[in-house]
Specification:
heterodimer, A: alpha+beta, two-stranded antiparallel ribbon, 18 helices, 52% helix, B: alpha+beta, outer membrane lipoprotein receptor (LolB), chain A, 13-stranded antiparallel sheet, 4 helices, 13 strands, 18% helix
Chain lengths: 493, 253
């Protein structure tokens, strides 16, 4: 062993130029791997951290539903067609959540999309998060930067208008929103039709870290958002249909509809009697039942966001909640932060995967170059190896000698590459990579990325370089071993 | 050789010009569109009816809405007053010329809305409740002749000329003999089919022809559709105050 190491070290020293070239290639390859993987890990961790800390918590509880339900509502083709389900037996769910030792804090929310108007002018759209300020600020203490005004008072109504939303709308109307202004919000709920609510702007804010999707979000008192989301105590009774009304239910065959008769005209009785005032002013009849049906369902929530004391409890939390829902027969489910975060976070992850693919291809190219260089290096020493074998060196001895040489070289070059990579990452971390456009902001998970050295990328890089070293020395050694010592010695002349 | 080339070029030009002229001659189709618009307008008459809407939703099941419709086409006015379901009772849509207002009795507020928007949670659009505007809002892109069930029809491709209509492209099936729209297909800007409309029953009120049965199929959500039946048709005069915001507020008290 000692002899082998001595010979291996001597050989490395003897072939200084070759060693330097191969070592440099290996070091650069490792540096690329370390920087690339660390960059991607930092971006992924950044996206995860900033969503968990600022918007989603670790876990989101919702009513049971199919489809892609996020904190912004459904994000698929049926987004406008379906209401976000309420969390059934909300009080019990909260009680259970609070009883779990690893639950740090919880925050209930309701979401709605509304058109904003003022007077006769439709100004644009905003996503509304209905929150209780006291709970919201405990859960997400650092995500809101108040530019003007403040949250509405406990128990009262109001809204914080997102600066990005305000900027977009101000362009259309030529005035500046300020606290105290009142605006109308109109939403289309699948439960209670269209709803209008007037709310006073109590403050203008921006999210400290935002993206295109979050730039659409304003915060509003829960009462108004519940009304806009159609969360009232009343519900539609099952429809009783006449035989004529049932005629076109289900799938219809267009051709047969127009096949079954010759005339398109139906006999109709047209009334011409003039009605008096009594008729016109009593058209709706009693409206008391309507008013009772439209009372706010004060116990209704769509989301319960949960922050854990440590991310390591995530799986346990999911399992505990699943068991609780099953035992109590509650039609609710948990979703992790990524499911809750919506399209932009998923897009960030998608793009990250594409970049991982690019890094992987670069790594493959680096590996091929390293392997090729090592193959040339070993075959060039055919004469030397032939001589060693001619004077009695065993095949296994030669194999181990080449292997140790490669491992030593890989170790030195790998360490150099990691150190170089760490230096590059240190500089990038200090400088900070600013996202100059929306695309980069999506990848970075925010406006600035400060990449950090990731241990997993260091370990991966070392494993890769060792495997490359072993594989790329085994192949040429096998060729050399098949050659007779005499031929090998002749080839060196 | 040059002579042959010259003659060939002239023949080609004549053929292209001929085809182009033929392709652009949509005057009889445009006349049909004008008659569709004219026969849908209650000029000099008020019109009221009850619309029963059956909304089929694959998630929520079947819902029924009852809406009172008041129309005065002179001045482009209409009022749609929802009577059922109870949670939406009293909500109203008031069209005053170019302005469409929505009223929510739960907050006693009016807000601007658009004819292009969906009517409540149905597959109908607010624009479906007024008179037609095929000749003014669309231009003819082409047409075919065909049949739909027992009826011979023109299948006309239309392209919107302004943004006042809900969809930028529409295809309509119009009976050749009676000029009635039997079917519509409405497309997005990317020419994706968004909605299919079927109009199997009509009625005549004076010179006006209105569909009394309509089916709107949402082509994005399988199983989602809305059928509308028109009943209690009346052409008796409607007081002016009905087409005002004050009336909607008062009737909701």
């Amino acid at each position: 062993m000692k002899i082998l190491l001595t010979i291996a070290l001597r050989n490395i020293r003897e072939h200084k130029v070759k060693t330097t070239i191969i070592g440099l290639i290996m070091a650069i390859g490792i540096m690329v791997l370390v920087v690339g993987n660390s960059f991607m890990d930092s971006a992924a961790a950044g996206i995860e951290r900033y969503y968990i800390q600022n918007y989603t918590g670790h876990l989101m509880i919702t009513g049971q539903s199919r489809g892609q339900l996020t904190l912004f509502g459904f994000q698929d083709m049926t987004a406008m067609e379906r209401a976000v389900p309420r969390i059934p037996q909300y009080a019990e769910v909260v009680e259970f959540a609070n009883s779990l030792p690893y639950v740090e804090t919880i925050n209930p929310q309701v979401s709605a999309t509304a058109m904003v108007s003022r007077g006769d002018k439709m100004l644009g759209a905003t996503q509304l998060f209905g929150v209780v300020p006291e709970q919201y600020q405990v859960m997400f203490p650092d995500n809101v930067e108040l530019l003007e005004g403040d949250f509405w008072e406990p128990g009262s109504q109001g809204m914080l208008l997102n600066k990005a939303v305000a900027d977009r709308m101000e362009k259309h109307v030529g005035f500046t929103f300020k606290p105290g202004d009142k605006v109308l919000f109109t939403s289309a709920s699948t439960v209670s039709g269209m709803r209008i609510r007037e709310a006073e702007i109590t403050g203008i804010f921006e999210f400290r870290q935002s993206n295109v999707q979050l730039d659409m979000v304003s915060l509003m008192d829960i009462s108004n958002v519940r009304a806009l989301a159609g969360m009232v105590v009343g519900h539609a009774e099952p429809a009783e249909l006449s035989p004529e009304e049932q005629a076109f239910l289900g799938t219809i065959d267009e051709e047969s509809i127009f096949d079954s008769f010759d005339s398109l005209f139906a006999p109709t009785q047209v009334e011409e009697e003039v009605a008096g005032d009594d008729y016109w002013f009593s058209l709706l009849g009693d409206t008391e039942s309507r008013d009772l049906s439209n009372v706010e369902d004060t116990g209704a929530w769509q989301y319960l966001l949960i922050r854990l004391t440590d991310e390591k409890y995530l799986r346990q939390a999911q399992a505990d909640f699943a068991e609780f829902f099953s035992e109590q027969n509650i039609a609710a489910q948990t979703r992790d932060w990524l499911q809750g975060a919506g399209a932009m976070a998923e897009l960030s992850y998608g793009i990250k995967n594409i970049f991982n693919g690019v890094v992987f291809i670069i790594a493959i190219v680096a590996i091929i170059i390293i392997m090729n260089t090592l193959v040339i290096s070993v075959t060039e020493r055919m004469g030397e190896i032939g001589t060693m074998r001619a004077i009695g060196a065993q095949k296994s001895f030669v194999r181990r000698m080449v292997m140790w040489e490669t491992l030593l070289l890989s170790g030195i070059a790998g360490t150099t590459g990691v150190l170089l990579g760490a230096l590059v990452l240190f500089i990038l971390n200090r400088v900070g990579l600013e996202a100059s456009n929306m695309f980069l902001e999506i990848i970075y998970g925010g406006p600035v990325l400060r990449p950090e050295l990731s241990m997993s990328s260091v370990l991966t890089s070392f494993v890769v370089i060792l495997i490359v070293g072993i594989v790329s020395s085994t192949y040429p050694t096998a060729i050399v071993m098949k050659t007779s010592p005499l031929k090998a010695m002749e080839s060196s002349r | 050789m040059k002579k042959i080339q010259f003659i060939a070029a002239v023949v080609l030009c004549i053929l292209v010009a001929g085809f182009a002229a033929q392709a652009q001659d949509f005057s009889h189709i445009e006349a049909i569109l004008e008659s569709l618009d004219a026969q849908s307008r209650f000029d000099g008459l008020d019109f009221s009816s009850v619309l029963t809407m059956i909304v089929e939703d694959p998630d929520k099941g079947i819902e029924k809405m009852v809406v009172r419709q008041f129309r005065r086409d002179d001045g482009e006015r209409f009022l749609l007053l929802i009577q059922e379901p109870v949670t939406e009772k009293g909500q109203g849509y008031l069209l005053e010329g170019d302005n469409l207002w929505f009223y929510d009795p739960s907050s006693r507020q009016f807000a601007h809305t658009s004819l292009k928007e969906t009517f409540q949670d149905s597959d109908a659009r607010n624009a479906d409740f007024g008179s037609n505007s095929y000749s003014s809002s669309y231009e003819v892109e082409g047409y075919l002749e065909g049949t739909l069930g027992n009826f011979e029809v023109y299948i006309i491709d239309l392209k919107a000329v302004d943004d006042t209509v809900p969809f930028p492209y529409t295809k309509i099936w119009v009976t050749k003999d009676t000029s009635l729209v039997l079917k519509t297909e409405e497309y997005s800007l990317t020419y994706r089919l968004m909605r299919t409309g079927l109009f199997p029953k009509y009625t005549k009120v004076g010179d006006v022809v209105i569909p009394v049965q309509m089916i709107f199929v949402d082509e994005l959500v399988e199983g989602q559709k809305t059928q509308i039946a028109v009943s209690e048709i009346s052409v008796s005069p409607i007081p002016d105050h009905v087409f005002t915001k004050a009336y909607i507020e008062r009737v909701n008290r």
